[in-house]
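Team,

Forwarding the record for the chain on the shared tracking sheet. I've put the sequence and predicted structure together so nobody has to dig through attachments.
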Amino acid sequence: MTDYDEIIRRNLEDDWGAAATHSEYHIGDTIRYQADDGVYWGTVIWVAAPRESRIEGHDNILPTRYIATRTGWDPSSIPDVVYSSDILQGTDEEVMLVKCKFCGGHRYKGQEQYCDHNPNKP
C-alpha cells in the first residue's frame, strides 16, 4: 500500500467508521442499488463496520454500510450510503411504479389489485 492509499484509507475511516472485517461486497466491487428516487450502479469505495449511531438521541446500532460512488457521477460528489437491503441482484428486481387503473395513483408493479378502490380487492 502506498502512502497515498494509506491517507485515503484513513480519511474514509474518519468519515465513515472502521472498516468491516466481513462483508458480502468489497472495495472495488460494482453494485446495483436503490437510493433516493432511482436505481443506480456504483463502485464500493469503503465498507464500514457496524457501530453505534453518532446522532444524538439515536440509540440504535448502524449495520454494515457500503459507501459507493455512482457510476457516471462526478467523483468528488458525496457518495451514497448503501445498506444490504438496498442492493439489487440482477436486472429483474428493479423497482417499478405503474399507474393504478382503479385510483389513478402509483403503485408497485403487480400490486394494483390491493388498491382500496378495486371493487374486487382480495
